[in-house]
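During the reporting period the student researcher (J.K.) took over the structure-prediction task from the postdoctoral fellow and processed the backlog of single-chain submissions. One of the processed entries is reproduced below for the supervisory committee.
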Amino acid sequence: MPRVSQDQLDARRQEILAAARGCFARHGYEGATVRRLEEATGLSRGAIFHHFRDKDSLFLAVAEDDAATMVETVARNGLVQVMRELLESATSPDTAGWLGSQLEVSRRLRTDPAFARRWAERAAAVADATRERLVRQREAGVLRDDVPIDVLAQFLELAYDGLVLHLAMGRPAGDLDPVLDLVEEAVRRRAPQD
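J.K. obtained the following structure tokens:
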């Protein structure tokens, strides 16, 4: 039997994650049965669960993958940029899958204490990246200094959550760029008044 390289295993894992993301988004966690996951991935149950211990582990891996991508973008460009990128890709099927996964994470955080405990570390990573970015922006003189960093971070997180909910509910993305401009302006240092 030929050996499978680590690159091939990693590629297969990513394929499973992408297909599962769409399946979870369309059907929710409960509705994404093993049969539906098999159909979405084009793989057998054994092939899927060779890479992931069980459905819960697969869902958590999807959510962790999304969170890791978000942490990278926040660290590099800030949470408002995450919102702008989300808005730009709002009609993409990948984004629809991601939005559905975010809603499912929210639901499971409220209803599944074990999941909430496992997820706490990922949520903390996003929050830490946001705060670190805000601290760097304040040190660079770009960010307003009359509001505590934690308040600014909460403001941005609420704006982000609102945008995710807006798009996940199927509301049109429309021209929300001016809204995001307003969010960004709210955290920027104001020019001195003459």
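The committee noted the following: The radius of gyration is 19 Å.
J.K. will present the remaining backlog at the next meeting.
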